[in-house]
Every structure is written in C-alpha cells, then in structure tokens.
Amino acid sequence: MKAIMRVIVFVGPAIAPVSQVCLQRLAATLVEVCRNPRNPSFNHYLFESVAALIRHGTAANPASVTQYEQALFPAFELVLQQDVQEFHPYVFQVFSQLIELRPAPLPQIYLQIFPPLLSPMFWERSGNVPALVRLLQAYLTKAGDEVVAGGHLVAVLGVFQKLIASRAHDHEGFYIINAIVESLPLQAYVQYLPSIWTLMFQRLSGSKTPKFCRFFCVFLALFVCKYGAAATAEQLDKVQAGIIYMLLQQVWLPTVPSIEGTDEEKLVTVAGVKLITELPGFSATGAQAALWAAVRKGLVDKVSGGGAAGAAQQEEEEADFEEMQGYSAAYARLANASKVERPVLAEIADSKKFVQEALARVGA
Predict the structure, then answer these.
(1) pTM
(2) In Å, how far from its chain's centre is CA 7?
(3) Distance of alpha carbon 146 from its chain centroid, rounded?
(4) Is the bond preceding residue 105 a cis peptide, omega within 30 degrees?
(5) Which residues, 6 or more positions from 8, have their beta carbon under 8 angstroms from its beta carbon?
(6) Which tens digits make up the pLDDT trace of 159-170?
C-alpha cells in the first residue's frame, strides 16, 4: 500500500486517466478493512493513497471532485455509522480536502453531514480534534452563511469554548475563532463577542501560557486588520472600558517579539500600524503616550528584526508512519491531504514596506 501511494505521488496529475479505476479499488479496500482494521500502517497508507489520488486527479480535472465524492461517501458513511474510531481522523481530513477543492456553494450532502460533526462524542476523542477543527474551518470558509442560517453557530462556539479551556487544544480553539472572523460578517457573531473576549480574558488572568498569549495576539491582530483599531477597541470596551490599553501593556508588548511565521508576523505588524495610527486618543502626545511609544518601538524592532519567519513551519511530503508511536485512534496527519493555505492580507504585497511607509508618515 505504501508503494501504491508512492506511485500515485510520483505519477502526479498524469494519474487522471486511470484515477477512477484506482479509486474504485481503494474504496472497496476501505470497506473491507472497516470490518477488521488490524493493520495500522496499511490503513494509514490506504488513506494516503486516497488523498494522493484526490490531490493529483483533481489537479488534472477540477470537476472530477464529484466522482471522488460518489465513490468515497458510501465507504465514509460506513466508517461513521459503524463507529470505526481508528478511521475517524482520516475521514475528517479527506472530507476537508474535498470541501477545500470545491467552489461554493457546497452540495446539500455536505450541509446534512455538518450538524452531526458537532456531536460531543467525536470531540471527546483527542485524536479527532485537529482533523475536526480543520473540517470546521473548511465549512466556515465555503459555507459560512449556511452554517449561520442553519442555527449552528452557537454549537460551533461551544466547541471553541471547550477547546480554549484546554492547554493541550487551546490553539485549535483559536483556529476556529479565526475562521469565524475571516469568513463571517461581523453582524453574524457580534452578539457573542463579549462572551468570546471574556473566555479569552479568563485564560489570560487565570492560566495563561506563552502559547496562549501568542495565539491571542494573532487573533487580536486579525480582528484589528479586518475591522480597524477603533472598532476593535469599541468591542473590547463592552467588556471593560479601556481594556485595550491593558492588553497592549501586559500581553501584546511582551508577546509580539516571540511570534513567528510569515502570516502571523504580517498580521501583528500591520495591526501594530493600525493601533498607533487609528486608535482614537492613542498618540505620541496623549494620556497613553508612553505606551504608544512602546508599541511603536516594538513595531520597529519587529520589522527590522525578521529572520525567524516561518522557521517553525515544516512541510513533509511523506511521514514514515512506522515511526509513529502509540497508534490507536490517535491523530495521524495525511501528508497528501495537506491544507492549501489562503494568503493573509493579500491586498498588502509587502508588509515590511507597508509598515515602513506608515512609520514614516507617523514620524512626519
């Protein structure tokens, strides 16, 4: 099975003419192993083969995604109905891959699948969490309006609340709330924002960690970049007047220097510009002059420092599954179903230039 996966990857999009034959056989094999999933390595490479086939087959013919769905959905339905726990993380990853490849709107079948995904039964198994979070992100991106119209946003926020309370999974909670901010209009969730902020502040005051602070700062930066510094302060004031200055002093300034990753650094630097130029009453001569100067200095240091961007991001084409320890229903990432990230702040081609020009205007 590992050899089959490697052949599909090696051949690439040229697999398209025989992809349906391969798909039918792989789907039939999946149904067989559902009866007795006793060989973890075989099962892993079976799903890697399916993911590779989807990846390269749809690259050659994007419209063929429908054929993949028709062939795989009966097998996936069997996995979920029979509660084959070992396969849940794999099925959720392939579902995500298929949704990400599809243009909106999604077919009705996907909307029918969505409500059961919020069942606590799935989320109680930690091996499911990364795959389910990615699946929720895919739904929010491609069917955000349908999620809201179907009355499912409260349940999605319930998942966010559960994850953000966990030190092991709090970053997964931020992935969900980031997807909500990126994909939904503010009026869809503005009524829940005070509760969302409060949940974050409870962690910051009670059991914050460096990881939590980094993800919080990236979320705050995302909100500032999308809605502006003034609107962000207005929403935060509904929880506690002037709390944005406390957050800048106690969380933003100590944390931003340690934030790495191309997208994350772009968000915090662009947000930093908006904070020192758009926040009413926040200036070099106002009541918060010392804090303003510190935020500006931190921004200059961040832009001039550079170097570490993306250091923590690694792409591996093929993880050797035999080296993974403790396999049961644990999460095993499918390399061939890896997520294609959307560009962050695509309208700003060069964030460093954007920041430098803004700082020059502030200096003038």
Answers:
(1) 0.90
(2) 30
(3) 19
(4) yes
(5) 15, 22, 49, 52, 53, 56
(6) 999 999 999 999
